[in-house]
Amino acid sequence: MMYVLIIGCGRVGSGLAQLLSMNGNDVVVVDKDASHFQELGPTFDGLTIEGDGTDQDVLTKAGGSKADVFVAATDDDNTNLMASQIAKQVFKVQNVIARVNDPEKEPLYRDAGIDATVCPTAIAVAHIRNAIMHPGLIALMTVNKGGIEINKIEVKGPVVGKALKDIPLPKDSTIAALVRGSKAIIPDNTTTLQKGDIVVVANLAGASGKVKDVLAKS
């Protein structure tokens, strides 16, 4: 169980808060506008605090010093960057994650030592690109301004029944996880792919087409 502090209760922040709370984590959500807490719904059992997520006093009240994870999820990049810096530098939170709305601003977060960024714009672009050029390959996340993609794809074709060590994936890609039914698996080289497996692949953006050709060849 983790203590998670989320700044911003829009669609992203509220959705994340609901999921983490349902999984048994202690969740605190901070937002300037108390009316936004309605987005959390009646089943949310975490805490809500009305206030500015860049205010150290507000973050102290929210338990910033004991947070295992800090997420800046507002729709304002300046707010997310400032809040993340405070979490990292003042409260010494080990895992700080920030939403980045403008892909061009991602380097600022890296320079500030933020642990991870998620850019919905870059993900949407990669998702649409894949829908056009590589149907069936779904972008989950992009890293380094889209240079690295994390995609998911349903296994089919000649790779079914083969161990990972015998599958000629592009050198710029790796299978990080797979889902088999309701079970999540961290595979090794001896793991054999089965029909219907959903694999999560990390690869350079330029390798996405080759990944699909190998893992889902008709």
Provide structural commentary.
By secondary structure, the protein is of the alpha/beta class. The protein folds into two domains: 3-118, Rossmann fold, CATH 3.40.50; 137-215, Regulator of K+ conductance, C-terminal domain (Alpha-Beta Plaits). 27% of the residues lie in helices and 27% in strands. It has six helices and eleven strands. The chain has helices at residues 11-22, 56-61, 77-89, 106-111, 120-133, 208-215, and strands spanning 3-7, 26-31, 47-50, 69-72, 95-99, 116-118, 138-143, 148-154, 173-180, 183-185, 198-204. The strands form two sheets. The chain has a six-stranded parallel β-sheet, sandwiched between helices. α3 links the parallel β4 and β5 (95-99). The protein is elongated, with a radius of gyration of 19 Å. It starts with a strand and ends with a helix. The mean pLDDT is 88.
Concise account of the structure shown:
With 218 residues, this protein is α/β, with parallel strands linked by helices. The protein has 2 domains: 3-118, Rossmann fold (3-Layer(aba) Sandwich), CATH 3.40.50; 137-215, Alpha-Beta Plaits. It has helices at residues 11-22, 56-61, 77-89, 106-111, 120-133, 208-215, and strands at residues 3-7, 26-31, 47-50, 69-72, 95-99, 116-118, 138-143, 148-154, 173-180, 183-185, 198-204.
Main traits of this protein?
218 residues; alpha/beta; Rossmann fold; Alpha-Beta Plaits; 11 strands
Helix/strand class: alpha/beta
| Corresponding CATH superfamily of the largest domain | NAD(P)-binding Rossmann-like Domain
From the N-terminal CA to the C-terminal CA, the straight-line distance is 42 Å
| Order of secondary-structure elements | EHEEHEHEHEHEEEEEH
- The residue-averaged pLDDT reads 88
CATH names the topology of the largest domain as Rossmann fold
Number of helices: 6
